[in-house]
């Protein structure tokens, strides 16, 4: 027998896809287009009117260039779907949004407190930096915890709440800091890549991730980190173009390894770079078309360092502030 789905219900595997298809189809009738950079983003742009709608299952964030356009879209949506207007954005996907005179403060205070309460750690003392500056732990040392899920959910306890401050800015320059901790893993000798992406002085994207393969040199590890940062910057440039705010200037990518900077612009191969995979050299293509410029930055100003290794308290606090992380 073959069953035909007449109505999508919660709990069915088809439910999210059916709901997305239904909602997206209606948005298209209103004049929205689905962004290619992010399928959960829909853009309305006609003349001087612009609206952005972000859909995550049944949570929606909607903003528009005018209050009249915003209310018009809300009215259309409420006529078609059973939904409630919760007003100004305060909370979305576990992130709390608080207005500030200069912009918005994003934080996860309540989410963190819930985690600490579940772990029985609400009375723990704070630590000056969340990562040990010396220890390199091996997976073979110690006894596995009984419940690894609970361990992975934990967060560092602090008395002060910190959040990401997004301030109003007329600048439209995309700046990326990339860094790598070469062979930092004592078990696999794989490196850790990190990057921080700023748009108009606001931190909009960041990453801390173990590299998939072993790098034979610090230059290769740093170059992989640069490639990760350039890939993220390329995606953001495409996203901004779809938001009808294209970038006119090249993206500046800062790296503290001179060899990696040289490798990004010099097409000549030699013995020390023959092992670098061809797919990493897409960075050169981006440099050639002037989408990005790879520049050297001293380690003392390499903000992405905070994503690759433990730092002394003073350096950690300085870099945290440079990432626009402020007290709530």
Automatic annotation (TrEMBL):
<dbReference type="Pfam" id="PF07727">
    <property type="entry name" value="RVT_2"/>
</dbReference>
<feature type="domain" description="Reverse transcriptase Ty1/copia-type">
    <location>
        <begin position="2"/>
        <end position="131"/>
    </location>
</feature>
<protein>
    <recommendedName>
        <fullName>Reverse transcriptase Ty1/copia-type domain-containing protein</fullName>
    </recommendedName>
</protein>
<dbReference type="InterPro" id="IPR013103">
    <property type="entry name" value="RVT_2"/>
</dbReference>
<dbReference type="InterPro" id="IPR043502">
    <property type="entry name" value="DNA/RNA_pol_sf"/>
</dbReference>
């Amino acid at each position: 027998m073959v069953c035909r789905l007449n109505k999508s219900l919660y709990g069915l595997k088809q439910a999210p896809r059916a709901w997305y298809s239904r909602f997206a189809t209606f948005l298209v009738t209103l004049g929205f287009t689905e962004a290619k950079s992010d399928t959960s983003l829909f853009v309305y742009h006609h003349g001087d009117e612009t609206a952005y709608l972000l859909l995550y299952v049944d949570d929606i964030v909607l903003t528009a260039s005018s209050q009249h356009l915003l209310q018009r879209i809300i009215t259309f949506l409420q006529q078609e779907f059973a939904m409630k207007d919760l007003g100004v954005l305060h909370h979305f996907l576990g992130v709390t949004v608080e207005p500030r005179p200069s912009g918005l403060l994003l934080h996860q205070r309540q989410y963190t407190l819930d985690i600490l309460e579940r772990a029985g750690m609400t009375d723990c003392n704070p630590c000056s930096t969340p990562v040990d500056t010396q220890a390199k732990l091996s997976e073979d040392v110690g006894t596995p915890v009984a419940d690894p899920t609970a361990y992975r959910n934990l967060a560092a306890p602090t008395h002060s709440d910190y959040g990401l401050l997004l301030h109003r800015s007329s600048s439209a320059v995309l700046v990326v800091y990339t860094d790598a901790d070469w062979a930092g893993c004592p078990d696999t000798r794989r490196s850790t890549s990190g990057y921080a992406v700023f748009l108009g002085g606001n931190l909009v994207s960041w990453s801390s991730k173990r590299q998939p393969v072993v790098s034979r040199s610090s230059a290769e590890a740093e170059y992989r980190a640069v490639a990760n940062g350039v890939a993220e910057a390329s995606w953001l440039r495409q996203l901004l173009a779809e938001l009808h705010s294209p970038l006119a200037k090249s993206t500046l990518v800062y790296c503290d390894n001179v060899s990696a900077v040289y490798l990004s612009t010099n097409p000549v191969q030699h013995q020390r770079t023959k092992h670098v995979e061809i797919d990493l050299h897409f960075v050169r293509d981006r440099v050639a078309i002037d989408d990005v410029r790879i520049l050297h930055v001293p380690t003392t100003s390499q903000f992405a360092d905070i994503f690759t290794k433990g730092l002394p308290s003073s350096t950690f606090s300085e870099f945290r502030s440079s990432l626009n992380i402020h007290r709530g």
